[in-house]
Recover the amino acids of this structure.
């Protein structure tokens, strides 16, 4: 039984720009912190895995003094944890409002995989409540219970370290050769590749210009047929999967078989 494992933010929905960024800024405002991230600033922050870790990039000696924060490291960690809990609440409210739709093709492809007997999972360094709220929107109430969710601080090192995907593969009880990951960022791709997994990339708001060398397929979206009619644009297809207007389960099965056959290497285009 193969498995299809999605990252959350940027893959299930374009949540970074329209969910996480406003949630961070509202949190900063509520706590009276002298900071507000612009869109361009946040484009750099997303390269840091994990919400608490992004917040901790603020903690220069100058910022700590200006904000009147405690100097004791343990007390400062507790304060960041308070910020992050509130940020997660705000973010979850944004997602549950329905303001951020699922990205094209996610529910279609997950449904096709489930019907074909594939295991489904989400592996993310975001907080688990945040991930589950996005999954409910993206997959819907009928399909989302069929997903395993691996999220937050369940592993010591976050992406681009391979820990979260190694954990997911172990919990799913599968060999790496049977798992295909859908990511949107270079850090996520490196995490999947580091765990020995085949990775497809669907670029998102902040990641279109990143280097995805090593991915088996890079597309602008997974795509949807009419009436939604979102056509994918293929950016890189080194194994010749040729998904054309949208990515189907057969394309992913081809990548999984091709990408994990060291004896033959890449197969010719179909």
């Amino acid at each position: 039984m193969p498995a299809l494992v999605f990252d959350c933010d940027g893959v299930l929905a374009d949540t970074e720009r329209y969910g996480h960024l406003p949630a961070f800024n509202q949190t900063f405002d509520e706590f009276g912190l002298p900071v507000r991230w612009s869109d361009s600033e946040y484009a750099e922050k997303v390269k840091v895995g994990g919400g608490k870790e992004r917040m901790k990039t603020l903690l220069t000696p100058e910022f700590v003094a200006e904000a009147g924060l405690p100097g004791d490291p343990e007390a400062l960690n507790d304060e960041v944890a308070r910020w992050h809990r509130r940020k997660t609440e705000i973010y979850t409210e944004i997602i549950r409002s329905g303001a951020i739709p699922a990205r094209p093709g996610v529910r279609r492809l997950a449904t096709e995989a489930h019907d074909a007997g594939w295991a489904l999972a989400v592996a993310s360094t975001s907080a688990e409540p945040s991930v589950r709220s996005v999954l409910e929107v993206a997959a819907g109430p009928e399909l989302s219970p069929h997903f395993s969710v691996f999220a937050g601080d369940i592993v010591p090192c976050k992406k681009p370290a391979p820990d979260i995907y190694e954990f997911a593969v172990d919990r799913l009880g599968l060999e790496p050769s049977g798992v295909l990951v859908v990511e949107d960022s270079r850090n996520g791709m490196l995490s999947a590749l580091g765990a020995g997994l085949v990775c497809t990339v669907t670029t998102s708001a902040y990641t279109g210009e990143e280097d995805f060398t090593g991915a088996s397929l890079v597309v602008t979206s997974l795509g949807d047929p009419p009436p939604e009619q979102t056509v994918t644009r293929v950016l890189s297809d080194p194994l010749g999967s040729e998904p054309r207007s949208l990515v189907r389960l057969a394309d992913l099965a081809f990548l999984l078989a091709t990408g994990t056959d060291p004896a033959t290497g890449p197969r010719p285009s179909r």
About this structure: The first helix runs from residue 15 to 30.
